[in-house]
Amino acid sequence: MRKDLPHTQKQFVFEKPSEVERRVPEAGVIDKPGVYELSKAPTGVSRIHLIPGFIDSEQADWMFEQLLQDIPWGQRTHIRQEVSFEEPRLTSWYGELPYTYSRITMQPNPNWHPLLTMLKERIEEFTGYTFNSLLCNLYRNEKDSVDWHSDDEPSLGKNPIIASLSFGATRTFEMRKKPSPEENGDYTYVERLKIPLDHGTLLLMEGATQEDWQHRVPKEYHSRDARINLTFRIIYPEPDGVWK
Ligand SMILES: O=C(O)CCC(=O)C(=O)O
Predict the structure, then answer these.
(1) Mutation to probe ligand 1, out of 153, 173, 204, 229 (largest number of atoms < 8 A from CB)
(2) SS3 103
(3) β-strand partners of 134
(4) Could you tell me the residue ranges of all domains in the chain?
(5) Does the CB atom of residue 215 touch ligand 1 within 6 A?
(6) Would you say the CB of residue 46 lies under 6 angstroms from ligand 1?
(7) What is the distance in A from the centroid of ligand 1 to the CA of 221?
(8) pLDDT digits (tens, 9 = 90+) for 81-138
(9) Ligand 1 atom nearest 135 alpha carbon
(10) How far is 11 from 196, CA to CA, in rounded Å?
(11) Which long-range contacts (CB under 8 A, 24 or more apart) does 90-95 make?
C-alpha cells in the first residue's frame, strides 16, 4: 500500500510471493488389479503388478493358519548408533544363501516348508520368474510395522524382482518416490502411494522400483489382527564372497 496517497486514493498493489508455494501432493491409492508404471527415469521403468485374490480366500484361510503355526518365527535385534532395539515384527528366512539387511544376517535355511514350496511354484508359474529365497514377516497386531526402506541390498542384484504375498489382516503398503538430488534428501514433496494388501493378494515389484522408490508398512492406530507377508526374492552370492 502506498503511504503518500490520501486515504480515498489508497491502492492495494499485488506483490508476488518471493517463493512459489509448493503443495504436498496427496497420496494416490492403488486398489484395483492391474499393472502400474509408477515412474520412468534414466534408471528405468518402476513397475508394479497388483493381483488381489491370487489365492482364493478359502485356501488363504488355512494357509494363514498353517504358516502362523509352522514357520520358525523369531524377533531380531537391530543396533543403530550403539542403541539396540527389537524389530517390531517377527521374521524367518528361507534360502540356500544367507541374507543381510540393516546389518542383520539371516543364516541360510534350505529346509523349505512344503506349503512355501507350493506357493513359490505357483508364483513362478504365474510370473515366469524363478525365486530362490524368501523373507517371511509376521505383523502380530497394529503395533508391528516395517519402516521406510528399499529392497536394494547388493545380493539382490540390479533391478530386483520381488513377489510379495499377503495373508490375514489387511495392512497398507505405502510407497514414496526417492527425491531428486536437488531436494537434498527431503521427502516432503515426493509422490506417495497407498496400496491396501489383503488376504491372498500378490504384489509384484520390478524394474527400477527398488532404486527409485521406498516402501513401508506403518503402524496402525486401530486394532489389527495378525498378518503374514511372504516376499520371494532372487539372491546372488556376493561378488567378493564376503557377506556384509
Ligand atoms: O509386509 C510387507 O508387505 C512388506 C515387507 C517388506 O517391506 C520387506 O520384507 O522388505
Answers:
(1) 229
(2) coil
(3) 94, 232
(4) 28-233
(5) yes
(6) no
(7) 19
(8) 888 899 999 999 999 999 888 788 899 999 999 999 999 999 999 999 999 999 999 9
(9) 9
(10) 53
(11) 90/137, 90/138, 90/140, 91/135, 91/136, 91/137, 91/138, 92/135, 92/136, 92/138, 93/133, 93/134, 93/135, 93/136, 94/133, 94/134, 94/136, 95/132, 95/133, 95/134, 95/233, 95/235
Polymer length of the chain: 244
Cα 48–74–89 angle (5° rounding)?
A: 50
C-alpha cell at 62: 488355512
For domain 28-233, which architecture applies?
Answer: Sandwich (2.60)
Which one, of 96, 20, 43, lies nearest residue 207 by Cα? 43
Residue 203: what residue type? L
The ligand 1 atom nearest the CA atom of 164: 3
Cell output for 97: 544363501
The number of CA neighbours under 13 Å toward the Cβ of 145 is: 14
Tens-place pLDDT, residues 155-206? 999 999 999 999 999 999 999 999 999 999 999 999 999 999 999 999 999 9
Say yes or no: CB of residue 214 within 6 Å of ligand 1: no
Q: State the alpha helices, DSSP H only, in 83-239.
A: 114-127, 209-212
pLDDT of 80 reads 79
- Distance between Cα 202 and ligand 1 center (Å): 12
CA angle 218, 219, 221 (to 5 degrees): 130
- Is the minimum distance from the CB of 48 to ligand 1 under 6 angstroms? no
Grid coordinates representing 96 are 540356500
